[in-house]
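Notes to self after the call with IL:
- keep both proteins in one doc
- input above output, always
- annotate only the second one for now

Protein 1:
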Amino acid sequence: MIKFCVRLVQRWLPEPFIFAILLTFVAALVAMPLCQQTPLEVVEHWGGGVWNLLAFAMQMALVLVCGSTLAAAPVVKRGIDAMARLPKSAPAAIALVTAVSALACWLNWGFGLIVGVVFAKAIARQRSDVDYRLLIASAYSGFVVWHAGISGSIPLTMATPGEQLAMATNGALTDPVPLAQTILDWHNLVTVLVVIVGITVANTLMHPKQGILTIDPALLKDEEHVANVVSSTAKTPAQRLEQSRLLSWLVALMLVAYLVIHLAVRGAGLDLGGVIMIFLALGLMLHSTPVDYVRAFGKATTGAAGIILQFPFYAGIMGIITGIGASGISLGGVMAEACIRISNPVTYPLLTFLCAAVLNMFVPSGGGHWAVQAPIMFTAGANLGVDPGLTGMAISWGDAWTNLIQPFWALPALAIARLDAKDIMGYCLIDLLITGVIICAGLLLWAM
């Protein structure tokens, strides 16, 4: 079964950019007949949405680059290499990478997405008996729990008081839903735990006994740059500034001070911007000099090319999905209404999850799911008597689940690992099937 899935993906999954283009055409061709939209309307919705993810694309690029730059700091590399020596066998290495990645993603998805693959690369440098494709797939598979974790955008939005909550849900939610009824509800916590155990066991069992694909450790080693050593008698004022650790520490301390005020004093949550600030502050402190950090940062930027190229196309797809033409309906609304028509109070969370999972292939964004589904799904859930926390988590799990076979979110990990999407998605397809059964069972148990 594993070999079949790997061959299937290798044969049929195109390069992620081609995949994004194909999804664009599929969304356009489906939107025209179902939403009674003209080709010009669809093109207008697509063009109007292309630039809607610019800020988010910049954040994702910085998560990748700042995280990679931090991992390149000498002291961090030594610490990661020491951890990479802990597993004593190939299956143990797969299990450790999966568990570390999943727990990190549950704490914060941006942090976990980078930490898992950096740790996986360190293990690949240490061991020659681990299948490299499965190792990176294991690091990425932990991402499936992110939206059920404490950085999940939809549960956090539901817990935030204000008029925006009522407006986004068409008045279905007038009071915030506390995290105790979403992320920290025991149903969700048990589901998360079983999912992590499930993918850890599955990934370990998938490791082949023969035909292992390894990679030359020399190819995974980051190139060491030559330090800018200048004799004390030849230093100019500019060179002294470039070599001044004081400047790096002052900027880093400003970032840390802001985070303390923002998180501890103001009581705000750790968002994507906060994760970037942590990576940036630690990187500045742990690299020898400001110019060393600049050089390491410059080397890391090459991995962000896929993000910069593809995010506008997915923003355009989101524009097609959410765009409302003269008919007054959108493709996202049609999908949600179809789910509602065949639901009852027990099956509603499950069908909401499946609807979100399909939608995630075209709109791989928690914010996009909230914009498309919140006005419809919370109103329908309230009419059926379904707990709003359950409705929100069903959408969240659906958004996270199909990330396992959606190359969009794998781009940062693949850039660091120097692999293509087709190299890991065959293994992720197995994880998709296993986690799908667990999540569906969890939602049904929660609804009963």
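Protein 2 (the one to annotate):
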Amino acid sequence: MEFTPLRISTVKPLRELTFDLYIFFKEQFLCYAKRGESLTEDKFQKLKTQKIAKFFITESDEMNYQKFLDLLLSETLSNPNIVVDEKVNMVEGAASSALERMQKDPGSESAYKATEKAAKSMRQVILGNPDALKKIFGKKVEKNEEIIKHSLNVCALAVKLAEVKKCTEAEMDDIGTAALIHDIGITNMHKDDIPLFYKPKKLLTNDEKRIYYHHCKDAANLLKDKPYVTASIMELIVNHEEVLSGFGPNKKKKLSLSEEILSLVNNYDKRIITNKTSPTQTLKDMMIDELGNYDLKLLNDFKKVLQTEGLLDI
């Protein structure tokens, strides 16, 4: 039997389950709650105390879970009485679960559709709640979760910058979806090459750059020939490391606004991870290092977003 992970934050207590729910304990999957049952508040809190972050479902229950999650997301995001922390936790959980499914099975249409829905929910929570972006960026994660956290960060901040640049909702959703899955090529790299993700770009040798940059095309290869993946999202994924100076892996010098936004935000968040510099120092470095790589107006608008959203104070 195959199992699919999902985040505990996407399941609410006192709500009837439409699928069997499992936990992974002592190297085996144990059924924790059956379809038709609901988790008590006590049970739910106990799991959080035990730091169990994930549940599991069988692959055959994926559609039942997605319908359950879609309804829960819709209710949560539209309810003005639900605090922003709960909305952020729900959206982050949905996005993380969808991305983990994509990493495990990039050819899965249901996983891709879940990622699209998660990106749309991320847009709704970011644009509808002034404190949401800061709450997302303020969270720390374990080392093994950094690539997923990076993808969530890029999704949230790129969508906000896209709004400032007056992109359409469709463009924002494309940017958000591409941002969530832009690095799925990294998780498919040889295990000895994955540490390159954590190495500062300026310290990469030419050979290491060639190996690392291959993750852009690897991601595209994982998604090619899938009729449900649009051309615009493919372009965003393939070109997310490109810069206007032509020094990206594809040597592209003309970027669409969406491509430039995704590249810039990816660059910023990646620098914080690899250079271990503060947000303020990272921005200062970028305003010097990236002149010529991005449009100056876009850099200045990005700076304003970081200041306005309080992200330089984290």
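Annotation: Strands lie at 3-7, 21-25, 28-33, 54-58. The longest strand covers residues 28-33.
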